[in-house]
Design a protein that fits this description.
Number of helices: 10
GO molecular function: DNA-binding transcription factor activity; transcription cis-regulatory region binding
Keywords: DNA-binding, Transcription, Transcription regulation
Protein name: Transcriptional regulator, TetR family
Pfam family, one: CecR_C
Helix content: over 70%
CATH architecture of the largest domain: Orthogonal Bundle
Largest sheet: none
Distance between the termini: 99 Å
CATH class of the largest domain: Mainly Alpha
Number of domains: 2
Oligomer: single chain
Organism: Syntrophus aciditrophicus (strain SB)
Number of strands: 0
Shape: elongated
Length: about 240
């Protein structure tokens, strides 16, 4: 008997949403298809029909969680693409931090589970989905640094910015214990204030690096000119 298209779509969506919750909570290995199906109100045959395997469901659940997260927090942060690079970086960083701190963002918890107990199942989909975000960060960094800063230094700046955004402390905003203990690590109470700090800190560092490279370049050019003049004077 053929399943009505509307009913099939609803079942698939229910499986994805439920799988997101359970995989984010327990990780791939500790989650079971039986538990997912029970909570979703369907049966194991539905998983096989829509996804083919637990592995495929895991991948699609992460992809769906990522997609929903990006919809909620677009990478531009609402900043126009023709805005100055400083403003575009601000929008990008703010959107990234809000995404990481969002209590509804299961994508983050998937990654936490993966780091603690890797499966290798998300490697390809991560390259596919995360790559555009990495390229966006890299492009903004290069635009702000200018052409004189080396690719190596530009990569270090990119890693520095994203490390500030991906710090586990960011995720504690809105997720941490209500009553913190004295020995608990610090908690970020205002994600927008922290975003502003990351932007100012990163821009200041890149500005200093750019200025240093420009001064070095001008010094080298000046040295070459002097050497040329001295050589010319000696031959006259």
């Amino acid at each position: 008997m053929k399943i009505p298209r509307e009913g099939a779509a609803k079942t698939r969506q229910s499986l994805l949403t439920t799988a997101e919750e359970i995989f984010a909570e327990k990780g791939f290995r500790n989650a079971t298809i039986a538990e997912i199906c029970e909570r979703a109100g369907t049966n194991i045959a539905a998983v096989n029909y829509h996804f083919g395997s637990k592995q495929a469901l895991y991948i699609e659940a992460w992809r769906h969680a990522f997609s929903e997260s990006i919809k909620a927090h677009p990478p531009s942060g609402g900043v126009r693409e023709d805005a100055p690079p400083e403003e575009r970086l601000r929008g990008h960083i703010t959107a990234t931090l809000c995404r990481m701190a969002d209590e509804n963002n299961r994508e983050f918890w998937f990654m936490q589970r993966e780091m603690a107990n890797p499966t290798g199942l998300l490697e390809e989909v991560l390259r596919e989905e995360i790559r555009p975000l990495q390229m966006r960060t890299a492009g903004l960094v290069r635009e702000l640094l200018g052409p004189l800063v080396s690719d190596r230094e530009a990569k270090f700046c990119e890693i520095s910015i994203m490390s500030q955004c991906m710090n586990p402390l960011v995720a504690r905003w809105g997720r941490g214990k209500k009553n913190a203990e004295p020995d608990d690590p610090p908690k970020i109470d205002d994600i927008y204030a922290y975003a502003d700090h990351v932007v100012r800190f990163s821009l200041a560092g890149m500005r200093a690096l750019r200025e240093a490279m420009e001064e070095e370049h001008m010094g080298l050019k000046g040295g070459k000119k002097s050497a040329t003049l001295e050589t010319g004077a000696g031959n006259s």
